[in-house]
Specification:
Helix content is 43%, strand content 14%. It is built from 15 helices and 14 strands. It is globular, with a radius of gyration of 22 Å. The protein binds pyridoxal-5'-phosphate (PLP).
């Protein structure tokens, strides 16, 4: 009886059987996994699998006991799998920025010169972070254009830098920077290469070692499709060897990596989030990293086909358009807040707007993690209907039809 009632409210797909002996009330689980929206397409946090949600709903666990130790051992191995490494990793209680701060504060000192490659909101923030812990210089590029490896080479040849930072996938502009080419330039000059992979790891092809990446950071709520609130860091061996503990305490990366190596954490971890993270990583492993990356690419191609069919334009240089987030220019006459309000109220669809000076000019769709083509098509159906209602001329059904040809 409860099942039928709930199915009417949340849709049959949202109903699940609880395998958790501690959860008696199945209705609670079903209601918990039911998304409040039709298509939830933010570029993070992203939709989560019911198994991930259920993993969090457990009684309090001793974070120094054998059960959690076992969980940490599995999390370490699965995190290495997600990063494509056998080297040092840490998982921190704290969103992606905590991971970046751990890497920057652990690897750099105040008088270290650092070159920050800036072409969007998040690379700009990486620069701000480096201002706290080092002596950075920003090499800037127009938002929506890629970092130019030749300009990086010229900057590195004119001054000595201890490190270079790159935002691999600039979520604010929907652009993937040419990490292989930039990495080569950095490697040739022997600087440390610190990479924000927060919306890249688990969604984009990763040749971390060949590119000479020394520190790579990911956020739990993006391509890994876990809850928000954790970050993970992978280091090269030479980066691990140069870690210091002078300017960090809570995010002391050496302490976190060393603790992780013995299935422990320096402080009380966010236990439910760690358990959900483990489940999300298990799902990634079950799907296969290569498969998820290929599927994410297919979704991005479908999204770009949908954009073209609606007569809209991508924001970034399309040669560098991201496979995890698509940024789209508003056509003339479409007001951002009204557009996203109608999407939310009438179509239960959630998208992101633009940031900083791109506010009101673009909107962004995330298609990473466990996002499906059905989710994406539902989102595009809603976008099409909303644009039409706001006076933008579109051929009914064009977006979904164009997308269907891609999958
Ligand atoms: C590329 C990138 N870097 C950094 C961040 C900041 O991460 P968090 O908000 O998890 O701290 C984000 C968040 O969207 C991001 O997309």
């Amino acid at each position: 009886m409860w099942k039928e009632r709930l199915a009417r409210r949340v849709g049959p797909a949202a109903i699940m059987e609880s395998a958790n002996p501690f959860i008696g009330a199945r209705t609670f689980v079903a209601a918990m996994v039911a998304p409040p929206t039709g298509a939830f397409l933010l570029p993070g946090p992203v939709k989560m699998h019911p198994r991930v949600l259920e993993a969090m709903a457990v009684p309090a666990m001793n974070h120094r006991g054998p059960e959690f130790k076992e969980a940490l051992a599995e999390i370490r191995t699965l995190t290495q799998y997600a990063f494509g490494t056998r080297g040092p990793v840490a998982v921190l209680s704290g969103s992606g920025t905590a991971g970046l701060e751990a890497a920057v504060s652990g690897l750099l000192r105040k008088d270290d010169r650092v070159l920050n490659l800036v072409n969007g909101k998040f690379s700009e923030r990486f620069h701000e972070l480096c201002q706290v812990f080092s002596t950075p210089t920003a090499l800037t590029f127009d938002w929506g254009t890629a970092v130019d490896p030749a300009a990086v080479a010229a900057a590195l040849d004119s001054h000595e830098y201890r490190a270079v930072t790159l935002c691999w996938n600039e979520t604010s502009t929907g652009l993937t920077n040419p990490i292989a080419e930039v990495g080569k330039v950095v490697k040739d000059r022997d600087a440390l290469f610190l990479v924000d992979g927060i919306t890249a790891v688990g969604g984009l092809e990763n040749r971390r070692e060949a590119w000479g990446v020394d520190a790579l950071v990911v956020g739990s709520q993006k391509c890994l499709a876990a809850p928000a609130g954790l970050s993970a860091v992978a280091l090269s061996n030479r980066a691990y060897d140069s870690l210091h503990s002078e300017t960090s305490f809570y995010v002391n990366l050496k302490a976190h990596i060393d603790a992780m190596a013995r299935e422990d954490t320096p402080f009380t971890p966010a236990v439910p989030l760690f358990l959900a993270f483990r489940e999300a990583l298990r799902l990634l492993k079950e799907e296969g990293l290569e498969h998820r990356i290929a599927r994410t690419r297919t979704l991005a191609e479908a999204a770009r086909a949908g954009v073209a069919a609606l007569g809209l334009e991508l924001f970034p240089d399309r040669r560098f358009a991201s496979n995890t987030v698509t940024a789209i220019r508003y056509p003339p006459g479409i007001d951002d807040s009204k557009f996203r309000k109608v999407l939310r109220a009438d179509h239960r669809t959630i998208l992101a707007g633009g940031q900083a000076h791109l506010k009101g000019k673009i909107f962004r769709i995330g298609h990473m993690g466990i996002c499906s083509i059905e989710d994406l098509q539902e989102g595009f159906r809603a976008i099409e209907a909303t644009l039409a209602a706001m006076g933008h001329r579109v051929k009914a059904g064009a977006a979904v039809e164009a997308m269907s040809g891609r999958v």
